[in-house]
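Researcher: Please generate the 3D structure of the following complex. Treat every line as part of one assembly.
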Amino acid sequence: MSQLLLIYFVAGVLLVSLTIYVLTAGADYGGGVWDLFATGPRASLQRDLIERAIGPVWEADHVWLILVIVLLFTGFPPAFSAIMIGLHVPLTLIIIGVVMRGSAFSFRSYGGGSDRAERDWGRVFAIASLVTPILLGVALGTIADGRVPAHPTQLADFFLPWLTPFGFAVGFFALVLFAYLAACYAPLETDDPQLQDDFRMRAIIVGILAGIAAGIVLLLSRVQAPLIWGGLTQREWTWPLMWANGLAALGALYALWRRYFSAARVLAAAHVSLILWGWAFAQFPYLVPMNNTIFNSASPKITMEFLSGALAAGSVILLPSYRYLISVFKSHPERRRRTRTVKPISAGDAE
Amino acid sequence: MLPNIIAARSQMGISLGFHIVFACMGIAMPLLMVLAETIHLRTRDEVYLLLARRWATGTAILFAVGAVSGTVLSFELGLLWPHFMKRAGAIIGMPFSLEGFAFFTEAIFLGLYLYGWERLSPRAHIAAGYIVAFSGMISGVFVVMANSWMNTPVGFKLDSHGHPYDINPVAALFNPAAFHETLHMIIAAYAATGIAVAGVHSFMLLRDRGNLFHRRAVTIALAMGAIASVFQPLTGDFAARQVALLQPIKLAASEGLFPTEPGAPLAIGGIPNAATHHLDYAIEIPDLLSLLTYHNPHAVMTGLDSFPEQDWPPLFAVHTGFDLMVGIGTALVGLSLWALWLIWRRRTIFGSVWFLRALVAATPLGLIAVEAGWVVTEVGRQPWIIYNVMRTRDALTPMLGLEVQLILFTSLYIFLGLTVLRLMYRHVMRSPDSEEIARLLRRGALVA
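Model: Done. Output below.
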């Protein structure tokens, strides 16, 4: 394969991995947000549903982020290095958020602590789930913005570039989208119509909020991120993408309204994916504007060949396994009930 | 104010030191839990099933902390050492990518294992467990292969600006240090975890001597830990002889050997004095180092004096770490042989209170040896981040005030470490007592 094809392939896998991370782990973060905002007579049922939904999958979902990092530093080392230098502070905060969220979740699920300890860990989990997506959005927004400082020397260089309205608008947008995904997936995790309705209403409200946030980001990008604004408005694929995105968004809302929950899940995922791809294509071919493109940052051909080979071989194992995991724990309740059930051997070890 | 290079190295060291405990457990705990489940499926003994489930819960907590602390490391490689990753990414991205896949497999099947007790058939469930145990081991192998490249960098050439070209990812992957480092580390993970788990259950046995749950736990964990411990000196000897060839300065620092001389003595303990080029207060056994390293008591050993002082690693940490590792390794061999002797003479280890007490005392030793071993490998590589190619200080991020985040991560890890200890203590304290086991067995007998 030519180096050009290899670059497109690795960059494509990078984008797909990021998309899956957002669609799966993003929803896990969103679940944490709904844990924080669990309200009404069924608040504890809502929290239980979220814990049940996230428990078996969050660690596997989380590995997509590791894959993104590994692909970036293997395939495009100078771009990785530039991001790690320029966004040192937000990325450090992100990993603290990742640690707090993951540990707190497992401490709550498996710690076997008192109700109070569980509530405290739940609070840590929920707050980390709220803050981390904002910071992820800030980091992506700052990259899109072309503001990643190439040669920071003073402390201000490490803070000012990402402390911008646009960065935080993208951060807020990411948070809203993650919460939206979680709310769209949640009704499929239960048979209780009231609980389904709780999340259905949340999904609709946040879906509308996401539309508003999208508008704010777009308007701000016109001033602050001209590359994205230009990419989103002036290229030939712009309008088909915009239309598809709008249709997916409206379709998801309609499906939620009519309680077509499976359709809503698919459409919401499509909506979020298209937003991500819109950003990626608008920024193309830059990885870190305005210095690193996928072409000038790519590793030598032999590395790209081996990396592509590893990706192909790995996906043969990985994709069926991941699919199996999802199908065991995320299939529709109707079908799930038909799978075999065994009684736990004693109450004492069910913890 | 701490210099940034010291702050960054300390942060990396603390992150690695924290992660390695959970990584070891993540490699070896799944094997223990599937072994218990396998015995249950063979014998239908309910105690083993209970054991598998309890070990699975412990694994869940340890694995989660291991996964997130591992993520921190993958970021810190870039956050603290961006110039290293810029140069090395294309060369050693391979093991990291493969590790990514292995770790992915582990996470997927651990989810299936932990939450699938009621959803999967027994065969599918145990198969998921074996995949977890296997992929955990493989992912450890790949990560250590990446590290071993930093010790013996091959598979590339450098141009006049220090940029690599003519890259050979396969040669880099199978670098000269890869085999002995991975072998020594993987066996260490089984030894340290097995001894630690056996120690914890022995502690419970001393309070409730007839408890079948803890007896079976000790049997499985000690079998794994003791077998690994007995083999470890062999892989250690092999590793030391490889290091003598590949990184003679690291071996010299480990042994506290200054002069290059034939018939070098083996020094135990002591404080290396860089000013006088002498190892103070050490016990020295003549010729033994040459004998161990080259199987010839008169062989010439290269000492630190043969290298410029600016290339010396921190001597005290490396020498003490080495002695600690070897000392603990020897003690664990003794403990394992004691167990064998008890089984041979008395057919059980559970009759000897002193053995159980020794096992309790040994609980943290394996993990301490792992930490000490990594000090030898990593501090012993200094002042290089890529041995003889790139100095650690040249890889450092331009970020300012790194001591702030050093304090932040140190406190975070202390807090998490104490929390995990507390949760594990509670988890262990809630393990079933003899009466519960008896009830369970009666009910199991009725069902059968």
